[in-house]
Design brief:
Elements (H helix, E strand, L loop, with lengths): L18 H11 L9 H16 L8 H14 L17 H12 L6 H21 L9 H28 L5 H9 L2 H23 L1 E4 L5 E5 H17 L1 H15 L3 H5 L4 H21 L5 E5 L5 H6 L4 E5 L3
Antiparallel strand pairs: 1-2, 3-4
């Protein structure tokens, strides 16, 4: 496949049927350079895409220019509302704005107050990103998002504080071991909160089902079985996502802090820690959301009988969500 294939409006230029294609696509999605796009440049991109849809492109416009225009528009403007997404809550802003929070979560020697603060701030940032990038084609009550947010904050803070208390009371741990174990506490807290958030915000899908589509993209029915699969895939993604972010930096920093340079210059520890977190975050996010295709496939035989009767297809698809 060439670097810039023939332009397709609303599609990705990378193959979404392979993990590597999805990984390259999401690297494009989280590209922080789109945060620096000016209002003038954004309007030029929107106008260029409108010209493409009307079939009156200016002469000399290349596929590369069209793909870049679409990348910028999708990074800044919500596809359903048509409104600009606030910079800290864009997918392209998730890594640069989220990294300071990750650094805070992984700071050693956390107090009870600092543990609660960083877990609250992390879940608040996640909730704002989820809300600003939600599917807004159908109105959803704000109570659903509030329920997910409160559930995520409660579970994250409860688990983090509970594990901290248990470790402090574990008298058989040496101070070094206790410090190392404490650095890993954010992972189970964040992972469980992420799952809690998904379940609380999307639990209605389990009772109502989600749409499944045939080969032509036509809805053939609503399936609760597909909803369970979608929820499971999304939950697994939310567990895998914080794993490299919250597990690798403590391991790497434990080794780096033994280096003579950092032993002599302790003021360098925080900047080095921040760079390690940034690298882990930038890699983990596209890897995690690339695990499953956005449009997942499922055999009709696994679904409800009425769906099997409604289509001749052996395989149907559903949107798993993010």
């Amino acid at each position: 496949m060439s670097e810039y294939p023939a332009f397709q409006y609303g599609k990705s230029r990378f193959d979404q049927n392979t993990f590597f294609g999805r990984f390259r696509h999401f690297l494009d999605v989280i590209d922080p350079s789109t945060l620096l796009v000016t209002e003038k440049r954004l309007q030029e991109c929107v106008e260029l895409l409108e010209c493409f849809k009307r079939g009156n492109l200016p002469p000399g416009v290349t596929d590369a220019q069209l793909w870049q225009a679409q990348k910028i528009k999708q990074a800044v403007i919500h596809p359903d509302t048509g409104e600009k997404i606030l910079m800290p809550f864009r997918m392209s802003g998730f890594v640069p704005f989220g990294t300071p929070v990750v650094v805070g979560l992984l700071l050693p020697n956390q107090t009870l107050v600092s543990t609660v603060f960083w877990q609250w701030l992390n879940q608040s940032h996640n909730a704002c990103v989820n809300y600003c990038n939600r599917n807004a084609s159908k109105p959803a009550p704000a109570s659903k998002f509030l329920q997910g947010y409160l559930g995520a904050v409660t579970s994250a803070v409860s688990i983090a504080v509970g594990l901290n208390v248990l470790i402090q009371r574990a008298s058989h741990f040496s101070p070094t071991t206790r410090l190392l174990v404490q650095r890993f506490i954010p992972f189970p807290a964040v992972a469980s909160a992420n799952v809690c958030n998904v379940v609380l915000m999307r639990h209605c899908e389990l009772s109502e089902g989600i749409s499944v589509l045939d080969n032509n993209g036509n809805v053939v029915g609503t399936s609760k079985v597909a909803a369970r699969h979608a929820l499971l895939e999304t939950a697994l993604t939310r567990v895998v996502m914080p794993m490299p972010i919250l597990v690798l930096p403590p391991l790497i920093m434990s080794a780096l802090e033994k280096l003579p340079l950092l032993q002599r210059h302790r003021r360098l520890v925080l900047p080095v820690h921040s760079l390690v977190c940034l690298a882990a975050f930038g890699l983990a996010l596209p890897l995690a959301i690339s695990l499953f295709p956005q449009m997942s496939e499922i055999s009709v035989n696994q679904l409800e009988p009425e769906i099997a009767r409604a289509t001749d297809c052996k395989i149907v698809t559903y949107n798993k969500g993010l």
